[in-house]
Write a structure and sequence with these properties.
Blueprint: H1 2-16, E1 21-27, H2 30-38, E2 43-52, H3 60-63, E3 70-78, H4 85-95, E4 103-104, E5 107-108, E6 114-118, H5 121-136, E7 146-149, E8 154-155, H6 163-166, H7 171-187
Parallel strand pairs: 6-7
Antiparallel strand pairs: 1-3, 1-6, 2-3, 2-8, 4-5
Length: 197
Amino acid sequence: MKLLLIIIFLLNMLTQNNNTQYAYLGGGCFWCIEAVFQNLKGVESVVSGYSGGESSTANYKDVSTGKTKHVEVCKIAYNPKIISYDILLAVFFYSHDPTQLNRQGNDIGPQYQSAIFYLNNEEKNQCKKYIEDLEFQKIYENIKTNLIKFENFYKAEEYHQNYFQLNSNQPYCSIIINPKVEKLKKKFKNYYPKKIN
């Protein structure tokens, strides 16, 4: 009985110390979003996947048609004691063009839309205010980012995970992703480690 009480106590301690929260962000190809967020201080993990649509069509082949109502997103696990949701939003908006509708550069289709899947009304209002501030300050005009209530997340195929880290010499990575990451490291230098593996 005493051992059981100790185990329950330890489990409660672990639960209380678990500060992990999640953000679901889509800003074009999930390879880019993954690379941008993977090395931020306070971000614990980034998983590429799909939100929206139905589970039966949550695969790259179907989603690539643009007809499944999925958006390529990343599930970002983060510690809000180290990095705030506002900083995640700042990195997100700086890392892509939120004024493009259903595309990012040459990636065209609704699956590449700029979208934030919010978890509750507090997050939704925070995102709305953030977008209003960006437009008020004329940082961006006519932002097309969709705010969508989060309902589901489907992990993408394994070959999409850690794509930039595993394929950094691939042309898409060296031409599109690497310059984006380097730009972000300069802008948010307090949140990126000096050396990225």
